[in-house]
Amino acid sequence: MQVSSLNEVKIYSLSAGRSLPEWLSDRKKRALQKKDVDIRRRIELIQDFEMPTVSTKIKVSRDGQYIMAVGTYKPRVRCFDTYQLSQKFERCLDSEVVTFEILSDDYSKIVFLQCGRFVEFHSQHGHYYKTRIPKFGRDFSYHYPSCDLYFVGASSEVYRLNLEQGRFLNSLQTEASESNVCDMNPVHFLFAMGTAEGKVECWDPRTRNRVGLLDCALSSVTADTEIEGLPSISALKFDGALNMAVGTSTGQVLLYDLRSSNPLIVKDHHYGLPIKSIQFQHQLDLIISADSRIIKMWNKDTGKIFTSMEPEHDINDVCLYPNSGMLMTANEAPKMNIYYIPVLGPAPKWCSFLDNLTEELEENPESTVYDDYKFVTRKDLENLGLAHLIGSSLLRAYMHGFFMDIRLYHKAKMMANPFAYEEYRREKIRQKIEETRAQRVQLKKLPKVNKELALKLIEEEGEDQQFSKKRKQKNLPSLLKDDRFKVMFENPDFQVDEQSEEFRLLNPLVSKISEKRKRKLKILEELEAQGQEEEEEPEGKASDAESSESSDDEKGWVEEVRKQRKLLRQEEKLKRQERLKEDQQTLLKPQFFEIKEGEEFRSFKDSAKKQKLMKKTLEDRLKLEEKLGTLNVSDTTVGSKQATFKLKKSEQQRKQQEAEKQHRQERKTLRRSASHLKSRRGRGRLFH
Fold first, then answer.
1. Bond preceding residue 379 cis, omega within 30 of 0
2. Which strands sit side by side in the sheet containing 337-340, from one edge to the other?
3. 335 by DSSP, 3-state: which?
4. Least confident window among 37-41, 227-231, 442-446, 552-556
5. CA-CA distance, 88 to 292, in Å (whole number)?
6. What is the spatial distance between Cα 462 and Cα 474, in angstroms, rounded to a whole number?
7. How far is residue 394's CA from residue 412's CA, in Å, rounded to a whole number?
8. Which helix (H) or strand (E) holds 71?
């Protein structure tokens, strides 16, 4: 089963893959299925759903149980039972079938219009009756209320055959020289016929008079279309009571409202081929039109393309299974194609497993690779001299170019450029020379910022590349080429300060790590050169040596770090002494500060005390508050701590309290002095 997608619409081709011949035995079929993966994976929805050579027409009965197809060679009709997923019967005919119609709900009543002016009737058991019409017929329609068959063909007359009376009735005389197609409206039974002059005549079967005439040839010519010759009507289909779609022999589809003589929309297939079939899809308001090359689905309101399909062989007829997303085609090939498009509708009830199958495929999508095809543009075709193949079956149009067979592409390329091998050989030689040049000593362009770091990274990168080549490992990306670290080698703000304390303390470690890496690389190279990797004893010796070397490295690194720290301390002492000398030499100048209104100046000791308090931890500050009596911490019955604070008084409150305290003291002294005077006066009276 092949899956294609256009405009995000998935199309499943259920008839893809090779079919096995009928004359093969079951044993050989099973053997082929074991060998060939394509045969094993193919889906045979209906057994032997094919014709011996070509299939011309395909239709579905009204009950949906039977699919009938006609084809050659020899001329025959085959009926397939969908409930049994196999062929119901096959009947051979005397001449090829132009078209046929199923009059009953099942296969019990069928009418065939044949090439030799014959009209053949079949019943459930087989052939029933055969008659002839005066001229060669091309299409016919059935009028259910009156049981009349209307035949159009190579004549200006429309022949009427009444099936109830069993005789021909008076024919309808038209203005056309020939008629190609006809259709009967299923709602009000208006009869319409398309002529070779590009006109559509509408007749009322009740009065047998013409009630309308549409000039479709004139309406099909628009500013965007290019038409060669007079377009004739090649397809005709009614949709409901008021809509009608008309297909022309030049590849245009016109959608009409019967109340207007102007088309609602004109859709061009751009292939210049006659329209073979027109179908209506009511769930999504789509029109399915087909010529011999392509099947297009487009919106009937806007004309926007929905999706399209290009079968491998030319198309003769298209049939849409009712109320589903299944589409069947009759082709210029033995096999009749079956397509399933889940967007159009569900699978028919007789093959409902398709829904589950397509859901599983959507959950596990597989990438489609065109191994046997080459995509070429129009310019490539002109360079190869294959522009004349555009429009043929060797090229399949896709996007802005075409797909062509890879074998044909290689042959055409060899003929167009016979010296391609010499050019390929020269290119290979040039690549080898460039590789050898790359191994030479090259001048390295260092960045402006962090030159030493860049040089170190380049050296490490070269060592890592040699190591990865020997070990067959992937090279890691370089920091110099990474855009994320680009600014580090361009912006001067990122310059590494080698005199900083951090760099001087880390530099011994970095240098030792690089030396350690170099030693490891040398050890590995020696082991590989001597071929002693598989021996156990040398490996043990190497590990002991490495452990002793690592311990020596650690000791040396510790000593270097200690030296750096001593140097840093000495530098700090020198800096402090220089600062003291500078402070002594500088003369202190008096500075004046302005005090805000309402505030009093205090000594600088208070601010110093506050700074000291702020530097202390919370625990120390709490202990100090406890000593001063402003904080009281006690344990509660629950087990938690309870802290009570006494807020510090502001400056105004403190001044007010001091004034009140002084006032109280003054009053006390006055009271004492008054009481003392009274006691002295009392004593004087007693003495007198």
1. no
2. 2-6, 9-13, 337-340, 326-331, 315-320
3. strand
4. 442-446
5. 29
6. 13
7. 13
8. strand 66-72
- Per-residue pLDDT for 441 more than 60? no
How far is the C-alpha of 171 from the C-alpha of 153, rounded, in Å? 13
Confidence label for 668 from pLDDT (cuts 50, 70 and 90): confident
This prediction has a pTM of 0.54
Q: What are the φ and ψ backbone dihedral angles of 13, each rounded to 5 degrees?
A: -90, 110
Q: Chain centroid to CA 237: how far? A: 37
* For the chain, the helix, strand and coil percentages under 3-state DSSP, each to the nearest 5: 35, 30, 35
Dump pLDDT digits (tens) for 610-628: 777 777 887 788 788 777 7
Beta strand 337-340 pairing with 243-248: unpaired
Return the percentage of the chain with pLDDT > 90, whole number.
32
Helix spans in 364-500 (H): 378-384, 406-416, 420-438, 451-471
Question: For residues 297 and 305, is the Cβ–Cβ distance under 8 A?
Answer: yes
**How far apart (Å, rounded) are the C-alpha atoms in residues 551 and 516?**
12
pLDDT digits (tens, 9 = 90+) for 354-370: 888 877 777 665 544 45
| Angle at 382 (CA atoms; ends 376, 386), nearest 5 degrees | 75
Give the separation between CA 401 and CA 375, rounded to whole angstroms. Answer: 7
pLDDT at residue 27, rounded to an integer: 73
Rounding to the nearest 10 degrees, give the CA dihedral for residues 237, 239, 242, 243: -60
C-alpha span between 489 and 478 (Å, rounded): 13
Q: Is the pLDDT of residue 513 over 70?
A: no
151-187: pLDDT as tens digits: 999 999 999 999 999 999 999 999 889 999 999 999 9
Q: What is the C-alpha R_g of the chain?
A: 51
CA–CA distances in Å: residue 661 to residues 630, 648, 651, 667: 21, 18, 15, 10
Contacts 24+ apart (CB under 8 A), 490-497: 490/447, 490/448, 490/449, 491/449, 492/449, 494/449, 494/450, 495/449, 495/450, 496/450, 496/452, 496/453
Mean pLDDT of 377-396: 86
Question: Do 274 and 291 meet the contact criterion of CB atoms below 8 Å apart?
Answer: yes
The Cα 667–Cα 439 span in angstroms is 108
Sheet holding 86-92, edge to edge: 54-60, 66-72, 76-81, 86-92
Q: Distances from the Cα of 245 to the Cαs of 249, 532, 670, in angstroms?
A: 14, 85, 126
The set of residues, in sequence order, having a beta carbon less than 8 Å from that of 24 and lying 6+ positions away, is 32
Measured distance CA(337)–CA(50) in Å, rounded? 9
Three-state SS for 162?
Answer: strand
**Tokens read off for 643:** 């802290």
Kindly state the average pLDDT of the residues 96-115: 93
Sorted by sequence, the CB contacts under 8 Å of residue 15 that are 6+ apart come out as 45, 49, 335, 336, 337, 338
Task: Please check whether residue 210 is in contact with residue 224, taking contact to mean a CB–CB distance below 8 angstroms.
Answer: no
Rounded distance between C-alpha atoms, residue 461 and residue 442, angstroms: 15
DSSP 50: B
Query: How far, CA to CA in Å, does 478 sit from each of 252, 322, 459?
Result: 60, 63, 11
Domains of the chain: 2-363 (2.130.10.10), 369-432 (no CATH)
Mean pLDDT of 597-607: 60
Q: In what order do the strands lie in the sheet with 265-268?
A: 233-239, 243-248, 252-257, 265-268
Q: Which two tokens stand for residue 278?
A: 């027109």
Q: Closest by alpha carbon to 70, among 96, 46, 45, 48?
A: 96
The string of DSSP codes covering 420-445 is: HHHHHHHHHHHHHHHHHHHTS-----
pLDDT at res. 553: 57
